[in-house]
């Protein structure tokens, strides 16, 4: 029922999270942690400072090392809010489409700006000063615009997903991704891809 909500989370190591999806979009700023992130059947290797953009209904989960502290800022955002503030020169909802991949690796100057804006948003959200809601909305919009600008630069670093070496695995993952809403049966999948269901 909210336009957005921010969480600053710090786990001593890794993240044991099952695959899931949300009705809202998810923006993740990785402060620390080693490992990867699965989004819609694609695995991305992450570095601290990376931005992960996950669209509404995208199936995802973190796969971060258990021996590494996992600190991140997560902002859940209502797609209607993003659509309402989008314009001809600024498709905020499109940032989460995955058309340029789901991970953006910021340059140092961009990283400082984006993480500073996220910190300012977090600080404003924790208070109750006059005009808080307006300033929080403005801070989030500025953060999203900066991410959009970084994403659209000609030399933007959009890491490619890591592809499994076995082409059968790739074919199987693509099939599952196209048929997630259907009732899938293990025996049928095993027969279709000529592999044991075990």
Would you give an account of this structure?
- This protein is α+β, with helices and mostly antiparallel strands and 198 residues long.
- It contains five helices and eight strands.
- The chain has helices spanning 79-84, 108-126, 132-152, 167-178, 186-193; strands at 4-11, 25-32, 35-39, 42-46, 50-54, 60-64, 70-77, 103-105.
- A five-stranded antiparallel sheet has the order 1-7-2-5-8.
- Strand 3 (35-39) and strand 4 (42-46) form a beta hairpin.
- Helix 2 runs antiparallel to helix 3 (132-152).
- The radius of gyration is 18 Å and the shape is globular.
- The mean pLDDT is 89.
Write the layout of secondary structure elements.
Elements: E1 4-11, E2 25-32, E3 35-39, E4 42-46, E5 50-54, E6 60-64, E7 70-77, H1 79-84, E8 103-105, H2 108-126, H3 132-152, H4 167-178, H5 186-193
Antiparallel strand pairs: 1-7, 2-5, 2-7, 3-4, 3-6, 5-8
Helix pairs in contact: 2-3
Task: Sum this structure up briefly.
The chain is an alpha+beta fold and 198 residues long. It is built from five helices and eight strands, in the order E-E-E-E-E-E-E-H-E-H-H-H-H.
